[in-house]
Every structure is written in structure tokens, then in C-alpha cells.
Amino acid sequence: MPGLLLDTLNGKRADKVPLWLMRQAGRYLPEYRELRAEKGGFLAMAYDSEAACEITLQPIDRFGFDGAILFSDILIVPHAMGQHLEFLAGEGPKLSPPLVDAALEGLAANHSRYEPIYQTVRLCRQRLPEGVTMLGFAGSPWTVATYMVAGEGSRDQHDARALAYRDPGKLQAIIDAIVGDTVEYLSGQIEAGAEAVQLFDSWAGSLAPDEFERWVIAPNAAIVAALAQRHPDTPVIGFPKGSGEKLPAYARETGVKAVGVDETLDPLWVARELPAGMAVQGNLDPLLLLSGSPALEGRIKAILEAFSDRPHVFNLGHGIDRRTPIENVERLIATVRGWQG
């Protein structure tokens, strides 16, 4: 039976608002930190299907969220495409060789790296309570490309943005390759049991409008169209963080069923500008949740009210901060669950 979250993503409004949080499976939970101390590094856990499933289910067991987001990482795709991936303590992920000065054709793909992720989805789907939606995900091509080009994360995505102007053909080839792999990867997750998938474009906000059209809207539209052919009943959530006034064009042109909204956007503006009836997801500031401010409940209710006339999935404007106290999450859940629209 479809759950509240899946129904909402498919455009149905209900008296209750479904709730899940980006990065809900992770470092803010003591049970996650305990398991990581036992199991070792992040990447090892992502490829350990039993551990990854346990981590995926931890926030469901503790909080009863309406969706379980797969515990994994957006850089699984470049790893499978042939870049070496490691997570260094205090430095974040590193990919080599960086494609800013290496050829895509020189990478040796290893698509068997996707299989442990599919197995995680299978295990989670078997173990989830009835009505809880299993969510898969991947990084959007632009965001994944920024890491592949630079070999690491950066604040301004300089290397990828400069490559887009200097040699757009090279970047287009990288983006096209990511699109192809992402379609296969998400299709594999859906076949393994994911009921909806999210495309994370964490660095969409770094692009000028015409560049946004080419490197964000067009690749995401290609992925959504390919998935719709293979899996017409599986909704895709698009999350173009930082897109600002470009969000309505993204919503209209990519074909996604639901749009994730970051905390910088006024929910009243979003509700007015998005296509009528489209599901929206968001958009509480993760730092407000971290702070535990007395303003927390009021802001949650304002978001719920702003989106009360359309299908709405309550979520954060980005991932939950690892320092967030458990009691603040409990306040959030109680406020959303107790809201009378």
C-alpha cells in the first residue's frame, strides 16, 4: 500500500503532511556514531549493505519518519565511472584523477560498485514498516561534475565553471556520461525497491541563468525523461539548491514530480510561482533546527501554512547538521504532526 509520502509526491493532498529530513541517516544520531566506530570509514559503510541498511532504518526506528532515504553518497557514480574515491578525515572526499586536466576516456568504469547499493535498497525495502516510502537518490550531473572536474569539493565550483566557458565540449561530454550512468544507477535502485528518487543538485546556485539552463535543467530533464520511460509510476524529486528565481523554470522544464526548496526562498513566493498542483518539499533552515530557537515552532507552522494549498512534504532546506540535538528534532516532529491545516 502506498504511504502518505508517496501519495503526496504523486500529487495527492491529505490532512496530514508527510515528513522526512535530508541526511536524516547520519552523524547527529548516537546510534550512527556507535556503528561507525565499530565499522570504520564512511565509504566502507556505504558499500556494506547490512550496515548501510541499518543506518538507513535508524531514524525510522527512532522518529517514525514517513520516508527512509538510502544511506549512500552522490560520489558513488564517479567512483563507478572509474575515478578513485577516498574520504580523508578533516578534508572530505577526494576523486582522482581530477578531470580538469585528465581525460574522461582514460577512466576504467566498474559498474559492479552499484550492486552493494542496490542490495541496501533490497534489504531496507524488506525491513521497512508498511507505509514508509523507500527513497533512492543520486547527485545531479552538474553537482557530480564539479567534484569530478576539481577532484574535490569547493566553495565556488571554480574549476567546473571555468571549464564550462573555456571548453564547453569537454564539460558536455562529462555531463552526458554522468547522465547515462545516473539513469542506469537510479533505474537499478528502483528495480531493487526504491519507490521514489531524489536528484540532489547541491551546487546549482553557482551558475548564471544561461549556464543553469544548459548544465542543470537540460541534464536533469534527460534523466527524468529516461526514468519516466522505464518507470512511469516512480516520482522524481528535484532539489536544485540555490536556484533562486530560476526554480520555477526548473520545475516546469525538468519534468520532476516534486521540487525541493532550500531555506533561502520565501515559501509564499514558491507556492505562488510553482506550477499549480505540483508537490513541494521543504524548507526549514537546518541552522534554525540546530539552534533550538523559540522561533522554531512558529517558522515550522508558517511553512506548513504557506504550502497548505498544494501537496507538501515537510523537510529541511538542506541536510540536517551533525550537531543538531535530538530534542530539537523531536520538537520539529511534534509540531508537524500536531499541525491542523
Topology:
Elements: H1 4-9, H2 30-39, H3 42-46, H4 49-63, E1 67-69, H5 76-81, E2 84-88, E3 92-96, H6 115-127, E4 133-139, H7 141-150, H8 158-166, H9 168-192, E5 196-201, H10 209-230, E6 236-240, H11 247-254, E7 258-260, H12 267-273, E8 279-284, H13 286-291, H14 296-306, E9 312-316, H15 326-338
Parallel strand pairs: 1-4, 4-5, 5-6, 6-7, 7-8, 8-9
Antiparallel strand pairs: 2-3
Structural commentary:
This protein is an alpha/beta fold and 341 residues long. It has one domain: TIM Barrel, CATH 3.20.20. It is built from 15 helices and nine strands. It has a seven-stranded parallel beta sheet with strand order 1-4-5-6-7-8-9. A hairpin with a 3-residue loop joins strand 2 and strand 3. The model has no long low-confidence stretch (mean pLDDT 96).
Helical amount: 40-55%
Total number of domains = 1
Number of strands: 9
Looking at CATH, which topology would you report?
TIM Barrel
Judging from the principal axes of the Cα atoms, what is the shape?
globular
User: Gyration radius, to the nearest Å?
Assistant: 19 Å
What's the pLDDT, averaged over the residues?
96
How far is the N terminus from the C terminus?
Answer: 25 Å
> How many DSSP H or I helices?
15
SSE topology string: HHHHEHEEHEHHHEHEHEHEHHEH
Brief characterization of the structure:
Helix content is 49%, strand content 13%. By secondary structure, it is α/β, with parallel strands linked by helices.
